[in-house]
Structure formats: structure tokens, C-alpha cells
Automatic annotation (TrEMBL):
A Pfam entry, by short name: Thioredoxin_4
InterPro entries: Thioredoxin-like_fold, Thioredoxin-like_sf
Domain Thioredoxin-like fold: 70-245
Full protein name: Thioredoxin-like fold domain-containing protein
Taxonomy, superkingdom: Bacteria
Transmembrane segments: 15-37
Amino acid sequence: MVAQARGASGDRRKWIIGIGAVVVVAALVIGGVLWTISDRNKTKGQIINPGETTSAPASGVTQKRDGVVVTVGKTGAKASIDVYADFLCPICGEFEKQYKSEIEQAVNDGKLQVRYHMVPLLNQRSSPPGYSLDSANAALAAADAGKFLQFHDALFANQPEEGKRGYDKTQLIELGKNVGITDPAFAQTVNAGTYDQQVDAAFQQIENDPKLAQDFGSGQRGFGTPTVTANGSVVSWQDPDWLKKVLG
């Protein structure tokens, strides 16, 4: 009888331990799922802070939209570059961190004009998809209001992670207010996706332009972001002296 009781007691302990292990595993799985969802959606409700990285350009520097290209610089600048970038592209973010101040100085000194091309290359790589196009459209609307650089710099300074949630239109509109846009047309343009079709059409041309194709190794060749060109040729921006060479 004693042996049987001990056996039953041992079985109960094993059963309780087994149930406890299942509960712990379930808690870890649920916690992991909740953390993943939270991490993926961490931009939700976030205010995009312009911060100190979005100083106004120097006197005489204009920001002009022509179709879906925004030209920034002073009249008479001897050098010019074209920058093709996606607001979600992490390498584009690194490019901005490395060269923003040098480009800004050259523009403010009247030595350089920059033509910005917003490309929705990673439009399917946000969750939900669409941030690349929404941000491109909003940046063009900011250019109409004369605040392109401030808007552009703030988006890169607060760049969402590829594969996760971007910023929604309400947040983009709020950023516009925070950089000083007061024209109600800005919010209307963002909400309506006014420039979406033009951005998509331009992107198709850019993707198929052989002059913009680059080698990615292993026989792969095509368009990628960021791409920088000067005088119609792709510039190797990985060279730390590339801008000095462009400026001559």
C-alpha cells in the first residue's frame, strides 16, 4: 500500500511538473509574439521629431519641385548631383549620416545643386506595405510648401526599420506642421496621394535606365538605393572623397 501511494504521489508530481513546463513554454511563446508585434509596430503613435538635424538652408538656397524631382541649391552652382533614395532604405540612412553635413555645406556655399529623386523601391518592405510611396508623396508636398529639406532630413533622422511599420499619413502630416508647414494643401496632398502615380511612373523609368544600373556581385546587375550620379555617371559614394572629386 505504501509503495502504491508513493508511486501515485510521484505520478502526480510528474504531472504537475509537466503542466508547469507547458505553462512556462506557452507564456514564453505568447510573450515572444507580443514582443514581436510591439517591436514591429513601435512607430505607431510616435511623433516624428525634426530635432537639430533639420536646420533651415542658407539664404539664397532654393527648394524647387519639378515633377517628382526636387532641386535644392543656389543659382549658378557649378557642380550638381542626383540622389536616388528610399526613405525606408537603411543604406540610404547610412549615406545621409555620413555625407549630410558635407552636402549641406557645399549647397549653402553655392558650390553644389542636388536633385533629389524619391524612389519607392522598398514599398512592399514595410508592414503594412506602402510607406516608401507615402513618404515620397509627402516629401514632394513638403517641397511645394518650401520645406523639403527639413522634412527629408527629419524622416531620415527618425527612419523606421525595413520590414516593420513605417509612419502613417497622419504622422507625416503632423511632421509637416512641426517643420513649419501651415498651408492646408499639404495635408490634402498627403491624404490624397496626389503624386503617387507620378512617383511610380518615374520609378519604372529609373529601374530600367541602363545608366543607373550597378554591379552587385555574383553576376547581378540592376538599380539600387542609394544611387548618386554626377554628369550622367554613377558615382562611387563609398569613396570618402567622392564629393570633393565632384566639386573639383
